[in-house]
What we know:
Elements: H1 6-9, H2 12-15, H3 19-22, H4 29-39, E1 50-57, E2 66-73, E3 84-90, H5 104-114, E4 117-121, H6 133-147, H7 149-152, E5 154-164, H8 166-181, E6 188-192, H9 203-206, H10 219-230, E7 256-263, H11 267-279, E8 284-293, H12 304-321
Parallel strand pairs: 3-4, 3-5, 5-6, 6-7, 7-8
Antiparallel strand pairs: 1-2, 2-4
Amino acid sequence: MSAIEVNRRVEPGTVALLGRLARWDLTSIATIRRSYTAVGPPPAPSDPRVRRTDEVIPGLDGRPDVRVRWYRPATDDADAGVALPFLLWLHGGAYIMGNLDENDDRLDRMVVELGCAVVSVDWRLAPEHPYPAGLEDAETVWRRVSANPAGYGVDPSRLVLGGASAGAGLAAGLCLRLRDLGIPQPALQLLIYPMLDDRELTPSIRALEDPGHWGLWHLRANRMCWAAYLGSLAGGEVPPTAAPARAEDLAGLAPAFLAIGDVDGFLDENVAYAARLSRAGVPTELHVYPGVVHGGFGAPPRTPRTAQFLRDVYAALAAAFAPADGSPETGEGP
């Protein structure tokens, strides 16, 4: 597989930023984490229109408690007894890194533009906590909120589950688990370039093995992160809730929105998963953005395609959050 021609294919406004990834040390999980921290932006100040609060959700079925961060409109309609549409958000980080701070500005914007409540989950990371720890944390928060929506000030008919990269992989896995447990699905599974497949089967993931792919996520790092997440399961029988691309049956899942750039190693597994969801009768919306790299959702929209990416995400959320009775939507709109 030939190297990805970064300078030809990536949007010009993004190419200059890829030098940060080219400097990553991919020797070990520890060095990947240090590199990730070094290139990350500083914590974003809170938007005055948004109220952020850190809380702990009680553990479910004997599991540990889960730390979360809530984002709500500063003039919260829930204070007046109005239930808000809701997004449970799972941050990315290849199953081994990431934290609550990194999506503060993006989630603030969602709250302002869509008039919703968001809870971001501080799910446990591998290799210290391999599968199913992170998935169980997400399940705990989802089930606590969906079982008591009034207690959290959210509308039970407008609950969305989503995430980016590994977080989107967790969201897809959680939809599979909820279906298998007979628990109602969310109104939408919002899957932003999900990390779905540990098997390295596709041309797009294998393209990242070539050292000439300068500045993009490397297959060596991807392999290391999957092994950390799967733990003792790596190389053996991996359940679909760990790697959703392995699921043989995708029927009965929530409507799905998938979005990914075409300069992303996860492209082929995402396109294949979207096609299989659609064939299984799941309403599915797929967007592929030319010139957009992995991580484009979290970065400021510096280019036309990344700006379109964000507009499409907000439009999908706005549709899922639309009141069933046809009354006007809340929020400012994208």
